[in-house]
Amino acid sequence: MTHEWSLNVNKSIEELPKGDEPFEGVSEGLEALSKKVDVAVVSSANGEALNDEWGRHDYIKFLTALLGQEAGTKQHCIAELKKKGYDTDNVLMVGDAPGDLQAAQKNDVRYYPILVGKEKFSWDRLVNEAVPKLMNGTFDEEYQNKLIKEFNDSLK
User: Fold this and answer.
1) Mean pLDDT in runs of 10 for the chain (156 residues)?
2) Are 133 and 143 in contact (CB under 8 A)?
3) In this predicted structure, what is the pLDDT of residue 91?
4) Do the bridges between strand 65-67 and strand 92-95 make them parallel or antiparallel, or are there none, so unpaired?
5) 146 to each of 10, 14, 36, 48, how far by Cα in Å?
6) CA pair distance 69, 27, nearest whole angstrom
7) pLDDT score at 77
8) Residue spans of beta strands (DSSP E) within 10-153
9) What's the longest Cα–Cα distance across the chain?
10) I need a labelling partner for 101 at 20 to 30 A (CA). Which of 27, 88, 89, 153 fits?
11) Cα 143 → chain centroid
12) Residue of 127, 111, 135 whose CA lies nearest to 32
């Protein structure tokens, strides 16, 4: 059943129109972040689809790693990235789905939500507030809880 789901996800990604445009703020956000931190993409999509999409938008140049379903689950990929010497307190999982939050929590890393319908706001806040807080050690439990509450509220 999981294999069938995976094949269906891959097929739906392949069928996406090639004229798709990223959300507003993504390009500027990735560029700004890549100058300050390592950026790794961890996705449930297959590697070929990721390379196609991220390459088509010229975003691969901003990435330290691009990990698709072949690399394992999001939880597994985060755990493997942490083994490369990243301090747990300096790892931030950015995502837009409950599974992203769960993968972050299971790896004891921080989570930052991209809110549906508020993508530009989310990317701007990521670059201008969340990452600076992470880098200067003020991304604390209170801030994390505020972000998670906001994320959960947005799913209702």
Assistant:
1) 54 55 92 96 94 94 96 96 94 96 97 96 98 97 98 94
2) yes
3) 96
4) unpaired
5) 34, 36, 24, 36
6) 23
7) 96
8) 40-42, 65-67, 92-95, 110-113
9) 44
10) 27
11) 18
12) 127
What confidence score (pLDDT) does residue 17 get?
Answer: 47
- pTM, rounded to two decimals: 0.85
Chain-centroid distance of CA 139 in Å reads 17
Q: Give the contacts of 43 (CB within 8 A, at least 6 positions apart).
A: 50, 67, 68, 69, 74
Residues 6+ apart with CB under 8 A from 69: 6, 43, 44, 45, 46, 47
* pLDDT number for residue 15: 56
Q: What is the pLDDT of residue 21?
A: 81
**Cα–Cα dist 30/59, whole Å:** 8
